[in-house]
Amino acid sequence: MSEFENITKQKSKNLRNNIIVIALSAILVVLLVLFFMQRREHSMIMKDITAEKDSIQNELTQIVAGYDLLKTENDTINEQLILAQAKVRDLLIEVEQTKRVSYEKISDYQKQVTTLRGIMRDFVVQIDSLNKRNEQLMAENTQVKEQFKQSEIEKEQLSQEKENLQKNLQRAAQLEARDLSAVGLNSRNKETKYANRTEMIMISFVLG
Description:
The chain has helices at 3-69, 75-97, 103-174; strands at residues 177-185, 191-192, 200-207. The chain is mainly alpha-helical. The chain has 2 domains: 3-136, no CATH class; 174-207, no CATH class. The termini are far apart. The model has no long low-confidence stretch (mean pLDDT 83).
């Protein structure tokens, strides 16, 4: 084999090796780019999932606090409130203790939060209705008491008037008319002794 052929063959081999190196380098660069892109995307996904998890925890905390504000004198509803709040607390603990969270899990938690919030909203409407009814009954009770009080006052006044009337009648029965006299008066309210000029008769007496 001539020296020229050897040189040509060596150049061809070197070229092929260079092409392989370049191709491998390009593939490596592409793989590195894909790796960092996937890593960045994974980081963004985890950031979004963490934010959603924090949001769910905040909502559950608000619901628990909301139950603390619900008050009613109905024992049955109070027991239901305690049970409903316990379910919210249990879910909150579960969310807080969950380390690996997926989109599917987040979606499931969100559905549960929506259901629990709806239950609390129903309690709010129910308790508000009961409280309004209680206020109405209290107002009616107060009105009845006021009417009864007014009736008692009027009864007392009538009793007092009756007592005063009886006293006056008893006093009148004990009175005696004395010094009874009758005088004729003319049209000018002057005393007259003539019957034809008399317009009215004035009678006077002393009670004692």
